[in-house]
Write a structure and sequence with these properties.
Low-confidence stretches of chain A: none
CATH class of one domain in chain A: Mainly Alpha
Strand content of chain A: under 5%
Radius of gyration of chain B: 22 Å
CATH topology of one domain in chain A: MetI-like fold
Radius of gyration of chain A: 24 Å
Structural class of chain A: mainly alpha
Mean pLDDT of chain B: 84
Largest sheet of chain A: none
Helix content of chain A: over 70%
CATH class of chain B: Mainly Alpha
Structural class of chain B: mainly alpha
Oligomer: heterodimer
Order of helices and strands of chain A: HHHHHHHHHHHHH
Shape of chain A: flat
Shape of chain B: elongated
CATH superfamily of one domain in chain A: MetI-like
Strand content of chain B: under 5%
Helix content of chain B: 55-70%
Mean pLDDT of chain A: 83
Distance between the termini of chain B: 6 Å
CATH architecture of chain B: Orthogonal Bundle
Chain lengths: 311, 295
């Protein structure tokens, strides 16, 4: 068990270096653009080129790339991600509270996706080939095909404008309801499909027939005998879902003006604020890698066979 | 998963159908899901091919006098904030939709398949190198990888297509590598090797044809995701730029317009939804026919 975890930890090292290098490329790719954006229309052409030279020196862009990469890595390790091109604030400070907001949204959406996805998948499997099954699978197909941003707009329209249940933009937990529903319901769709197929498989096994033959109540058969065996593929997908939820939050935040790192990243790319873009992508990818690490280690707890297979 | 609207008896077509192309086609023609998905897709292709003859107005002509008109006989889907006919823009949007599908899928598939073939059938060090590269790409959530590429290349329709293409590479590479590993020690591959066939002849002539079915099935699921991401990018202002008649870009001002002019939001949103749904329906049908394991 501990050797497996150690191996898994070692495997993340090259991945983290890869993330560092990819985010480093963001900075290396657009140096002059950023400076031009900074002084947009404020300087004459000569002054601008002088300013660009100064800026390039200040950001160390006139040094060889490997030196730049080393100092970038050093900065990241000491928690210094530079300062925003646009607001001149430290990147860490700009990201700070927004990071928490994004995690909040991701977590709330995950709860919605898990509840709706697993319940509808299990119900569809139990009532296989009835109208309930067909309806829930059709709805989930619609969910897979629906652009999240359009679904968000439709929800705002229905819930806030027509029904007037919630204000359009609201801070605090009330403001979390609509974005979390949008993201969670969209991501519930693939979960429902996987939950259904693995439940159908589990319900067809001999031990289910045995349990029924013993006269066990249906609720025990479904929840205690079938569901735990269907759980592994559900958990596998749910682990992967966290990533798409986290990424999906980036788009949902913009629609609902939820002040998270996604909204920040989209603005930063539009403004060519490469330090912010770099910081957000670095922190998000690292978070994602850590989440995957935790999920992988959790597997070994759910299904001890995995350790044997992988090591 | 066996979701489909086809009758159960047709679903139970023998798996051997995958063996021959004619049988596959036959099974597809008897699949209602395939008919719906394929029909809508054909309609989209038709609209893209004959757009200039279908549209009642120039999709780019600005006419402030008729701005924000609700749907009527003169303007089927109404007009937008600049007085452009939304129906005409939706019809022209089919062209960009198909273009994005084609570019995104071909970038992801060509690079992904090559990497997967090399990793699966090449020397061990190459496999190691490629898989570590894939690991790095997979370290980013899909949308985030797309945003990273956009941040490096700058926002435009072309970079959006390249970005969703690149983000799709790891999926294809991993699939092909796994399939190659499972077929490369089979007898007919050994036979080719014994007969003295070159490495690339074995890769392209013997191994690749055997991974085509899972590849097609995967492609029909990966492509709609890529197109959805591209539409989201345009919506965020990081993909197709106005005045492009791209469905996602048509929704850029949706948040302010939806309260006063719902049709400006409904038409492009529904267009994306229906187009993606048709791809997914077709994908479902193809998977049911080509991949007997999924049933």
């Amino acid at each position: 068990m501990s050797t497996y975890i150690l191996r898994r930890l070692l495997l993340t090292v090259p991945v983290v270096i890869g993330i560092l290098f990819t985010t480093f490329l963001i900075k290396a790719a657009i140096p002059s653009d950023a400076v031009v954006t900074m002084y947009q229309g404020q300087l004459s052409e000569q002054d601008a080129s002088k300013a660009i030279a100064i800026m390039r020196h200040k950001y160390g862009l006139d040094r060889p790339w490997y030196m730049q990469f080393l100092s970038y890595t050093e900065g990241v390790l000491t928690g210094n991600l530079g300062q925003s091109i646009r607001t001149r604030q430290p990147v860490i400070k700009e990201i700070g509270y927004r990071y928490r907001n994004t995690l909040e949204l991701t977590f709330a959406a995950f709860l919605v996706a898990l509840t709706v996805g697993v319940v509808s998948g299990v119900v569809a499997a139990y009532f296989k080939d009835t109208w309930l099954d067909i309806t829930s699978m059709t709805v989930s197909l619609f969910g897979i095909s629906m652009p999240a941003f359009f679904f968000g707009l439709v929800l705002i329209m229905v819930v806030s404008v027509w029904l007037r249940w919630l204000p359009v933009i609201e801070n605090g937990w009330q403001g979390l309801i609509l974005p979390a529903l949008t993201l969670g319901l969209i991501e519930a769709a693939p979960l429902a499909r996987v939950a259904r197929s693995s439940m159908v498989e589990a319900l067809g096994r001999d031990y289910i027939r045995a349990a029924r033959a013993k006269g066990m109540p249906e609720s025990v058969v479904v929840l205690r005998h079938a569901l735990p065996n269907a759980l592994l593929s559900i958990v596998t997908l749910a682990g992967l879902q966290i990533g798409s939820l986290f990424g999906g939050a980036f788009i949902i935040e913009v629609i609902f003006s939820w002040h998270g790192i996604g909204e920040l990243a989209v603005e930063a790319i539009q403004w060519r604020d490469f330090t912010i873009t770099q910081g957000v992508i670095l922190i998000s990818a690292t978070t994602y890698v850590l989440i995957n690490l935790v999920v992988d280690i959790l597997y070994t707890w759910i299904d001890p066979r995995i350790v044997v297979d992988k090591s | 998963m066996s979701f489909t609207t086809a009758e159960p008896s047709l679903l139970a077509l023998p798996a051997a159908a995958a063996g021959s192309r004619r049988a596959t086609l036959h099974a597809l023609l008897h699949n209602r899901t395939a008919w719906i998905g394929g029909g809508v897709l054909l309609l989209i292709i038709f609209a893209a091919a004959f757009a200039p003859w279908i549209v009642p107005y120039d999709p780019y002509r600005v006419d402030p006098i008729v701005r924000l008109q609700p749907p009527s006989l003169a303007h089927l889907f109404g007009t937008d904030a600049l007085g452009r006919d939304i129906f005409s823009r939706i019809v022209y949007g089919t062209r960009l939709f198909l273009l994005i599908c084609a570019i995104a899928a071909s970038i992801a598939a060509s690079i992904g398949v090559t990497l997967g073939l090399l990793a699966g059938s090449g020397p061990a060090w190459l496999d190691m190198l490629i898989m570590r590269l894939i690991d790095v790409l997979l370290a980013f959530p899909y949308i985030l990888l797309v945003l990273a590429v956009i941040a490096i290349l700058g926002p435009s329709l072309w970079t959006a297509m390249v970005a969703v293409g690149i983000a799709g590479i790891p999926g294809y590479a991993r699939l092909v590598r796994a399939e190659v590993l499972s077929v490369r020690s089979l007898e007919y591959v050994e036979a080719m090797r014994a007969a003295g066939a070159g490495v690339w002849r074995i890769r392209l002539g013997t191994i690749l044809p055997n991974v085509v079915s899972p590849l097609i099935v995967y492609g029909t699921f990966a492509t709609p995701l890529a197109v959805l991401a591209a539409a989201a990018l345009s919506f965020l202002g990081l993909g197709a730029q106005p005045p492009a008649a791209e469905w996602g870009a048509m929704l850029v001002n949706a948040r302010t317009l939806m309260f006063t002019a719902w049709w400006t939001v409904a038409a492009p949103g529904m267009a994306i939804f229906v187009a993606i749904l048709s791809l997914n329906l077709l994908g479902n049908a193809l998977r049911d026919v080509l991949d007997p394991r999924s049933r």
